[in-house]
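=== Structure Prediction Worksheet ===
Name of assembly: unnamed complex
Input type: mixed (protein and possibly other molecules)
Chain count: two
Listed entries:
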Amino acid sequence: VTQNIYDDPTFFSGYNQLDRSKHGLDGAPEWASLRALLPPLAGLRVLDLGCGFGWFCRYAHAQGAAHVMGLDVSENMLERARHMSERLEITYERQDLSELDLPAASTDLIYSSLAFHYIEDFTALMKNVVHALAPGGRLVFSIEHPIYMAPSQPDWQINADGIKTWPLNSYQIEGPRTTNWLANGVLKYHRTLGTTLNTLIQCGLRVTHVEEWQPSAEQLTPNPQWREELDRPMFLLIGAQLDSGRL
Amino acid sequence: VTQNIYDDPTFFSGYNQLDRSKHGLDGAPEWASLRALLPPLAGLRVLDLGCGFGWFCRYAHAQGAAHVMGLDVSENMLERARHMSERLEITYERQDLSELDLPAASTDLIYSSLAFHYIEDFTALMKNVVHALAPGGRLVFSIEHPIYMAPSQPDWQINADGIKTWPLNSYQIEGPRTTNWLANGVLKYHRTLGTTLNTLIQCGLRVTHVEEWQPSAEQLTPNPQWREELDRPMFLLIGAQLDSGRL
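=== Predicted Assembly ===
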């Protein structure tokens, strides 16, 4: 069972104030990069794992997806998603991503934004993803970058020469990381980039793109504070496709 | 033209003293992990890019490879390689990896240990690799990990709480890194992990394994000083295979 931090009132209230909650997909700096990994959505059966307020589900619906379903563990999120999606043919369902129950070969695209790092057993999750993908189906997801998640003290350091650095340690020590972000005791699971990719490969997915997100020059001009993102990546964006056969 | 640091007398003399120079493959802590990515070598045509003293070429020959060729830019290395390989059917040739001239579809396995991070144009290198691989052919290589290469000051820091950290910065700033290792002014090229993998994929290779090397428990017992390798990866090991067709 995954920690349901989004139904914690303090966390939920803080989450509501984020740009990505108030402004949707365009409020997320990495959205343009994630969107670039998507196939054309028209006619596709689309599943969003950790759909939150349903921003992506509504985007997929507007792009002409044939069927759109959003799953989330948080009742708060689903209630808001349903409210914002009235009169749209989108299915929202409460499911814990660590206990997915999905029909076989039922989906052309599985999408997930910043949800998988809350899941302890990534292999089990990927087995469920592969089970649910139709032949040639795609997985596009983002997670917090392992460089961002790994440190025991994830705060910028200024060294004696005035140089700002990210104090990386424990990178190879996989497992839980507890941080205080919006609320105390938010539980995430750190995995190396190698483990994440090898899990996809071993489950039968072909890795098609690996992006360690950074702001573009166009984004840096109005947001100079994002320059620190050039020192260490915060988000990891991955595209993969169900293998059509072994070499 | 690649900097030929191995023919610098100071560098070469220092390099000669390393365990991996004195003891060969088994003197390199990451060798067992790299070997695990190799296919059975018997009958294969094997090419080693940056073959150094020829340790891997002799290993491939002993494993029954059908044809073994080692390329290196350093005359010092090649001379020693030839001397150590007398009476073995191994071809050594001087070539700059940035200006490779290889026959098409002539190789079943291209291997490279800790050489590609000296090459500025990785895309050109991978195009040459793909050109030289026979259908189903494999690429297995190691490089210094981008986390290890990126920092402007790549030295461990001890923070106010006595915690050892790796001062990561400039991760997204790809390009030259000059370090003083064995000799002053050793020139390497930093690329993000994403760039390395996407280059392989775009050149038509399928990524089959990505390993951020760490010492095993068996290695840590006699080498407790390697424990810092758990805080940040030093080596990146990659396996890839020539695509047999697009999805």
